[in-house]
Every structure is written in structure tokens, then in C-alpha cells.
Amino acid sequence: MKHKQFKIITFLTTMVMAAVISFSILIGNPALAVASFFGGIAVMYLSKRRLEDIVEDERIRQISQKASGITFQFIILSFAIGGAVLIAMKDTYPKYTDFGFFHVICSLYGSCTLLYLLYVF
């Protein structure tokens, strides 16, 4: 399997997983969400095993690792600071407190997603 095909399969699997998990949350069925998650992980794992090796230079790999590490740090730090600021403004803007907690939770999910994406790509 070529790398471009792998990216397309990964993207489509992620979209299907998101749709099924969203639907399962709407209907209140957590088993469907868990099954979708593990099924998607299995599909991605099996497609990664079929991926042909890509020849790349060590310098390209180092630059890519540094860039992805800095991006990861920047995004997670900005989410955490944004959430903390919204939570800290609970006296002035009490209706933004829940959004602040949502922001912090999104930063946690975002960090997990970014770690996964850094592993896959």
C-alpha cells in the first residue's frame, strides 16, 4: 500500500469513527462508541502494517520531529492557558466557566490526538 492510500484510509476511518461516536453519544449507547473506537484503531493498525517502507533522509526525519514537537507544545500550551484564563474569569464572566472546563478537556483530547497523529505520520 502506498503512503497516499494509507493517509486516505486513515482519514476516512477517523471520519467514520467520529460520526459513529457522535451518533452513539446522541442515542446514549456507550458500547457502540467503544466498539467504534477499537474497530477504528484495529483498521488503522492493520493498514499501517501493510504500508510499504518509505525511503527518507535522516535530516528530513529530524526536522520533521522537531517541527511536530514544537507544534505539539504550542497547541497544548495554548489550549491549557486559554482554558485556565476562562476558568479564572469565573467571577467576571460566570457563564464562561463551563466553556473553560470544556477548553481544558479539549486540550486533553487534543494532546491524545496529536500524540496519535505524531505516531502515525
Give a written overview of the molecule.
- With 121 residues, the protein is mainly alpha-helical.
- 83% of the residues lie in helices and 0% in strands.
- It has four helices and no strands.
- It has helices at residues 3-27, 30-49, 58-88, 97-120.
- α1 packs antiparallel against α2 and α3 runs antiparallel to α4.
- The mean pLDDT is 82.
- Count of extended strands: 0
Give the helix level as a range of percent: over 70%
Question: What kind of sheet is the major sheet?
Answer: none
The SS-based structural class is mainly alpha
Question: What is the terminal-to-terminal distance?
Answer: 15 Å
Task: Please report the number of helical segments.
Answer: 4
Query: Could you tell me the mean pLDDT?
Result: 82
* Low-pLDDT segments, ≥5 res: none
Strand fraction equals under 5%
Rg value: 18 Å
Give me the strand/helix succession: HHHH
Gross morphology is flat
